Amino acid sequence: MTPGALDGAPLLVVGAGIMGAGIAQVAAQAGHRVRLFDAREGAAAQAKAKLAATLDGLAAKGKLTADAAGATMARIEPVAALGAAAGVSLVIEAIVEDLEAKRALFAELESLVGADCVIATNTSSISVTALARGMKLPGRLVGMHFFNPVPLMKLVEVVSGLHTERAVADAIFELSRKWGKVPVHARSTPGFIVNRIARPFYAETLALLFEQAAAPEVLDACFRGAGFRMGPCELIDLVGHDTNFAVTQSVYAANFYDKRYVPSLVQREMVDGGLLGRKSGRGFYRYPEGAPALPRVAHEAPVAPREITVHGDGRVADWLAARIADRRPAREARSPWTGLALDGARLVVTDGRRAAELAAALGTNDVAVFDRPLTAGDPAGAAIAYAVADRASERWRAQSPAWLAALGFAPQPVADTPGLVVARTVAMLINEAADAVLQGVCTPEGADAAMKLGVNYPAGPFEWLAGWSAAGVAAMLDALDAQYRGERYRLSGWLLRHV
Questions:
Q1: Is position 301 within any domain?
Q2: Average per-residue pLDDT in the chain?
Q3: In a shared domain, residues 239 and 273
Q4: Annotated catalytic sites, by residue?
Q5: Is the pTM of this model over 0.70?
Q6: 468 domain residue, yes or no
Q7: Residue 214 shares a structural domain with residue 100
Q8: Which of 59, 161, 321, 433 could lock 447 by a disulfide, CB 3.0 to 4.6 Å apart?
C-alpha cells in the first residue's frame, strides 16, 4: 500500500453519532463517496438530515457556497445494513467505546470487505493492539483518532498498534493531511498523546484545590493569564466531571496504577454528588452564571528602592530587566535565583521552592515568589499567582503585589505551595511529554502539534522547554518531590539526559 492509496476511495463510516457524522462530513467535503451506517434504525438518515441543515446554515452565512454544501450532501449515502461495506477501501468506526463491541464489529467487517481494505478505529482510549486481536488481517487496523468537533479540530492521532503495518499508518497519515487535518503518528499506549500528556493540566489544579491553595476562579484566571484559552476548572466543567474522571481512571488503571496518574478525591466526591459541570448545572461553578469575578487585590504604589538589581540569566531575567529598564537596575546574571532584589526584599520567580524556604536560603524574611511568566510580551493585566513568606513584614506584604502590578500583572495571592500554579503544571506537562518521547509514543514535534491542536494549548511542551531549560524543569520537579514524596513527581529519563 502506498501513502496515496486511499485518495478519493469510497469509504464506510460506522456510527452516526456526533463523531461519525463529523467524520462523514469531512470525508465527503474532500470528495469521497461516503456510506454512513448506524445499528440504530433511522439514525444514519437523521444524521444526514441534521448535517444538511448545518451546511445550509453555513451557506446562508456565506461560509461556504450552496453548490459546495449540495455536493457534500450528495456524496453521503445513509445505508441500512453493514453489508454496504462491500467494495469500500476504508472503514472508519465511531461506535461505543467498548472493546468487545468493537472487536465484534471488526470480525463482521472482515467477512464483508476485501483483503486490501483498511479498517480505522476512532477510539480515544482503547489499545489498538488489543482491538486487533482475533482479526484475520490485524495489520490493516489503525487508530484514526479525531477530536470533537471533527470539522473544526485539525488534529488526527494516527495510532499504530503492534500489529499495524507501517504502510497502513502512512496511508491514513497522508489521507488525513489531504482532508485538511494535521496528523501525528502515535504508538498505542494508554491515552495515546493528548489524553496522556494532558493529565497534569487537570491533576495539578485538583491537587491545589485539595490543599485549599486557592479558589477555582483564581486558578483558572492564572492559566488564562498565561495564555491558555480556558483554565482547568472551567474546562472540566465543560467536558463533564464524569467524563474527565473516567478518562483519568482509565489511564491510571492502564498504567498499572502508576501514582503519577492517580485520580483526585476532590473530583470523585463531585462525581458522587452529581456535580458534573455544565451538564448538571453545577460543577466548580454554578451555571449559567459561570465563574464569579476575581476578588480585587488592593495594593499601594511601589516604593522606589535605593537599590534595585535583576538577578538571574535567561529569558525571564531578560524580560524583567526590560520591564524596569527605566529604573536603571543593576544586573547579577550569575545569581542562583531569578527575580528582583529591592533593597533588602526579594521578589523571586518560582523555582519550585516555597517562599518560606527561599527566605531561609536568601537570609531575609521579606521574600515573595511569583509564577513563571510563559510569554515575553506585555502582561496587560494578566492574573499571576504569588505567595509571601510567612515571616515577611507587613510592609513587604503590601509592596510585593505592588511590584507585580508595576510589572504589568494582576497579582493573585495563593497559599505558599511549591511551584505555585502555572509553573508546576507546565513542568509536569513537559515531564509527561518527555516520557512519551522516551517511550516512543511520539516525537517532540508530534507532541507539540498534538497539544496545540488537540487541546488548544498556547504552546507545546517542548516549546515551553526551549524557553526554560531541562535543568530548571528538573529543579522544579525535585522541589515538588521533596515536598510531597512518592512517584508523582519523578523526573523523566529523557529530561535527566538533557540536564
A1: no
A2: 96
A3: yes
A4: 124, 145, 157, 195
A5: yes
A6: no
A7: no
A8: 433
